[in-house]
Amino acid sequence: MIKKFLINSVIISALSLINFSIANAKCKFIDIGKRFTKSHEKVYGALPKNESGYTELDFVASEFCPDDNFDDSFIVKYTFIDERVASIQLFADNSIDNSATESMKLMNYAKRTYGDFDTGGNPQFYNNFNIWEKFQKYVVYNRRLIGNSWQEEIYISNDKYYEQLVQYENEKELIQPVEDEN
Questions:
Q1: Helix and strand tally (H, E) in the chain?
Q2: CA-based Rg of the chain, rounded to a whole angstrom?
Q3: What is the reported pLDDT for 21?
Q4: Are 123 and 107 in contact (CB under 8 A)?
Q5: Cα–Cα distance, 33 to 18 (Å, whole number)
Q6: Could you report the per-residue pLDDT of 6-28, keeping only the tens digit for each?
Q7: CA atoms of 164 and 86, how far apart (whole Å)
Q8: Which member of 125, 141, 165, 175 lies 3.0 to 4.6 Å from 110 by CB, making a disulfide possible if both were Cys?
């Protein structure tokens, strides 16, 4: 009797640990501030070079999040400054329809990975953002209905790179020609 109880306890404990580790799987992003290395280049291809040092690369999210059931409608966008990761965006591509956002996968990932937040009475109608400060970075979950289309993303960066990205965007806007209003 005791032997059967011990075996059942061990099996239940093992199953709980396996379930817990799967439920808390996180995407394996390249860390903010890390340099794009030769090993990254072998896996993801060469980082495009340009004068500004600013580069963006898009990947299907399942490459970095294999355990989260993200399909081709979920994209990871890395922004690099001088070959260092400045920001990471994980977003739902709703260009065809809103099925990516309606699946609730990105919201559920954000809550499971970064912490729960109040989504009101029905999470499907959540139209707002939430910010976490974690491990010297900040994470923003943003879900907005614009017209009939949802825009949903998780944005990850830190103060140092956020300031550099803002500076780059401001310089880019100053260089672009102003369109004639007439």
A1: 5, 6
A2: 20
A3: 32
A4: yes
A5: 32
A6: 444 434 444 343 333 334 458 99
A7: 8
A8: 141
